[in-house]
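Deliverable D4.2, example record:
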Amino acid sequence: MRKQLIHMLEEFVTPNKVTTIEEVLSERTRHLTVVLEDIYHAQNASAVMRTCDCFGIQDLYITQRLHDYEVNPNVVRGASKWVSQHKYEREEESTAKCFQDLKKKNYRIVGTTPSKEVASIHELDISQKTAVVFGTELEGLTEYAKDQVDELVHIPMYGFTESFNISVSAALLLQELVSRMKNSDIVWQLTEKEKEELKLEWYSRIVKRSDIHINNFMREHSQNSES
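Output generated by the structure prediction step:
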């Protein structure tokens, strides 16, 4: 049924858009993912989402312990339509619930820190599915996150400033990890089922009144099945 719905909606999508979506899906990955822990600057959070889309990262996990996550449409530039967002309610256990879900999906959780006492991103082993956690702009990761991650890493810096802006950190880290991943033997691509699920989701968003088209199709399919 999913394939039939995709084929039906595809009739309302331009050939150029169909080709672009196919190309984007071929470069998408869930082998790497990003977690934002309680980020409160909408501009920075939105920039990270845009960076995820640019580097082919399909999922963005968002915890909200003290602050609500907000998207700045002028910064995100439509990336919110293409990146899957997993938001956790504003509560004390927000990060804990996120980490539990990531562990169930077999992710190794890696936290970022300015400390040079831990390994650099160049040394990070990404042979296993890896979720990279970024903390708040002012305080970094919470103590809970630091205690619960499997490893901490830092991005090498050579100046007086102690840390990068979070959106810059995400871009530098993903540039390094995605490049290494794609030049390795890791099977990082989405499965065919995942591609189909995303294609249906994306078509549903870009086709005007897609809900009406889908309801009509389902009704006709049901009637044909009964006859």
